Amino acid sequence: MKYNTAAVAALQPDYLGFIFYEKSPRNYDLEEIPSLPLGIKKVGVFVNASLDFVLEKVQQFGFDILQLHGNESPEYCSELRKLNAELVSASYLDNEAPALSEIEVPALSPVEQPVPSSVEVWKVFSIKDAFDFSVLGAYEPYVDAFLFDTKGKEKGGNGYTFDWEVLKDYPSKKPFVLSGGIGLDELDSVKNMLKTDLPLFAIDVNSKFEDQPGLKNTSDLEKLLCFFRNPDSAK
Ligand SMILES: O=C(O)c1ccccc1N[C@@H]1O[C@H](COP(=O)(O)O)[C@@H](O)[C@H]1O
């Protein structure tokens, strides 16, 4: 068995992620996602994918959130939000989605307003030991959250942490997710991060909770969820 989605979902996490990146050992290549308990949001993870590809997966799997893990531009994020909003209203009005043709990413005009979309966009930035936060400004109107991961050899899933001290200079009020190599050994540091004033709203875990790529260790995940539900309890 490559994935144990249903067993992980039974633990009732807030989010469950599915990676669509052929070079990843976790690439999700099944035609369906098992039906999930209410309250779990589905996250589609993409790396420099075409807009057509992302929208096709949104239609197929009904993602709540799109996590963009590549070098996607602010224009790409803006267009993705717009196209998602169009898909949502088209399927609401016609009960069917429009055909997807070749989609180009136009340049943003300075007066253009962000379009609300029911599918959230999280833009990922990878950090080693320094980060130029000024790059975030151009994305702010078009994304719902940032996600900070560790810069490594792979696009994601590198399995080690970055220097979280860097985030002390986070200049924005936009909520962010902390990611990159988080395992049970990092929970004390996570606890300290949660005590800061930073708008950290979720912790993203991946390879440190696996027995093999894609196959999560549910007993370790239970310990993690127990920690978040009662941070003062022992690990
Ligand atoms: O896990 C992958 O293989 C992967 C490939 C391409 C993009 C993202 C990927 N995973 C994401 O990477 C982070 C951190 O993972 P880890 O804890 O360091 O293993 C997480 O957001 C995963 O969804």
Keywords:
isomerase; amino-acid biosynthesis; TIM Barrel; alpha/beta; 235 residues; single chain; RibuloseP-bd_barrel; globular; binds the ligand O=C(O)c1ccccc1N[C@@H]1O[C@H](COP(=O)(O)O)[C@@H](O)[C@H]1O; 7-stranded parallel beta sheet
How many domains comprise the coordinates?
A: 1
Distance between the termini: 28 Å
Task: Estimate the helix proportion, in percent.
Answer: 10-25%
Number of helices: 5
CATH superfamily: Aldolase class I
CATH fold assignment = TIM Barrel
Counting helices, strands and paired strands, the structural category is: alpha/beta
Main β-sheet, spatial strand arrangement: 1-2-3-4-5-6-7
Task: Characterize the largest beta sheet: strand count, sense, and whether it forms a barrel.
Answer: 7 strands, parallel
The radius of gyration is 18 Å
- List the secondary-structure elements in sequence, H or E: HEEHEHEEEHEEEH
Contiguous low-pLDDT stretches (5 residues minimum) are 95-103
Give the beta-strand count: 9
> Architecture, CATH level 2?
Alpha-Beta Barrel
* Shape estimate: globular
- Name of the CATH class: Alpha Beta
Q: Please state roughly what percent of the residues sit in beta strands, choosing from under 5%, 5-15%, 15-25%, 25-35%, 35-45% or over 45%.
A: 15-25%
Mean pLDDT: 89
Task: Summarize it.
The protein is α/β, with parallel strands linked by helices. The protein has helices at residues 5-9, 51-61, 74-94, 187-194, 218-229; strands spanning 15-20, 41-46, 65-68, 120-127, 145-150, 176-178, 200-203, 210-212, 215-216.
